[in-house]
Known about the structure:
Largest sheet: 5 strands, parallel
Structural class: alpha/beta
Helix content: 55-70%
Number of strands: 5
Radius of gyration: 28 Å
Strand content: 5-15%
Strand order of the largest sheet: 2-1-3-4-5
Oligomer: single chain
Low-confidence stretches: 1-39, 317-321
Amino acid sequence: xxxxILNGFKSFxxxxxxxxxxxxxxxxxxxxxxxxxxxxxxxxxxxxxxxxALIIDSNINDLDYEKELLEETGCSVATSSAGGEGLDLISxxxxxxxxxSIELPRMDGEQTLKNLKNSEVSKCRDSKVYAIxxxxxxxxxxxxxxxxxxxxxxxxxxxCVMEYIVMNHAPKKMLPEDERTLNxxxxxxxxxxxLKRCDVRLSTGLANHENNIELYKDxxxxxxxxxxxxxxxAMDSLFLNNKLQxxxxxxxxxxxxxxxxxxxxxxxxxxHVNMAKDDTFEVAQKNWKSLLKEWRYVVTGMADWLGEPExxxxxxxxxxxxxxxxxxxxxxxRERVEDIIKALLDDxxxxxxxxxxxxxxxxxxxxxxxxxxxxxxxxxxxxxFAIEIFRTI
Length: 393
């Protein structure tokens, strides 16, 4: 059937056939069916009773959003913006599920949990309690489990994670009978939680990749593999005071990070673009370490999620070389670098390499260490570039 006629027929059938009734030959291809699963939602069968949840969060915007997500699952939701107020609520009513933000004023989340569990008037001692963590909280889930929480979620809350938590604790008779929906929510929530631990929002990334998990994985794999050349390009331009090249390299990585859902990393990249644009290179150089730390955190986490830790570049470990603990004087360090440059100009790679090995055993300023590491890796492949970097020390 020609395209125009087919589209007209489809439009007509959509008007006269009930919305959820499949039309033969239309909308039931395997590709469309795969896309349909991204619309699956959890709805509790509330005729068997209500499932009660309580959220304690001092950030009003986050609180409203978290409440909305829980209500969409079919929960009856109460809220509080302070630990003390939350304790008043649990003394009056029983809640099946409780979410407590760790970052509460006065009585923080840890203390609120202790009071909830130990209070003689608490009606929720046996309730399941989850910690709400800041997106950049680097403490492990095990740390919060050891405090007595039953699990964690990281801001901003993700719908599938909320759904999965409710699924795990609501009575089975209240859950939908559609196993496909339940399995989909479970798989998506588990992937979301794993990536959230390395500051990546899977829902954002999927939305940028046609909601196709395979396309997203390919993009994540390329991002991890690109670390080493991208890092070297940015650092080389930083070392050589090439502002335009530096800004171009950082902008490119910012867009890749943002498209994958690594929003915090993208924001740090953006800060570095602004530093280079508005300030001196010295500011960018001094702040590079925090960017590298977050970049490493995201890439190693994504590689682990992909099940391909080997794609994480070995150069990650270059920054952590152990020294002999002795600080070498600036004058002596420069003399040794000059000797290495002279050896390279004389094409004596072996002597230059042995001198570099000895020099790297000492302690240096962080930026000097990076320049020496980068130059040492280039000595065999691009001697002229290595010498150019060494001369900036």
